[in-house]
Amino acid sequence: MKRYFFDLVSLDRSEYDFRGRECSSLEHAFQMAELIALDLELRSEGEWSGWTVKVRNRDGKHLFSVPVRSVDQVAA
Question: Which domain holds residue 57?
Answer without folding.
Answer: 2-75
